[in-house]
Design brief:
Helix content: 40-55%
Number of strands: 0
Protein name: Candidate secreted effector
Distance between the termini: 73 Å
Organism: Meloidogyne incognita
Number of helices: 2
Order of helices and strands: HH
Number of domains: 1
Structural class: mainly alpha
Length: 80
């Protein structure tokens, strides 16, 4: 396989969004997210979803740390 053919195949997967980096660094290569693409707002939505996911992880870590520090266990039952 020639190098250019291999590069074309790799780029076609990126073009379709199948092998892009998950950190958003290659989102501009996804065809449907381009300005005149069918889902041009998708890039912003994907970016927001990544931010929401990161925030959820941070809040979960904070909650876990507070539970450990305060001796709170979420599995404890409430006594009445």
């Amino acid at each position: 396989m020639e190098c250019s053919n291999k590069e074309n195949i790799i780029n076609s997967f990126k073009y379709c969004g199948l092998t892009n980096k998950t950190n958003g660094a290659e989102d501009d290569e996804i065809h449907c997210f381009k300005i005149n693409g069918p889902v041009s707002e998708g890039r912003a939505q994907l970016r927001q979803a990544r931010l929401d996911n990161e925030l959820a992880k941070i809040f979960e870590e904070i909650d876990l740390e507070e539970d450990v520090e305060n001796g709170n266990e979420s599995d404890n039952s409430i006594e009445m």
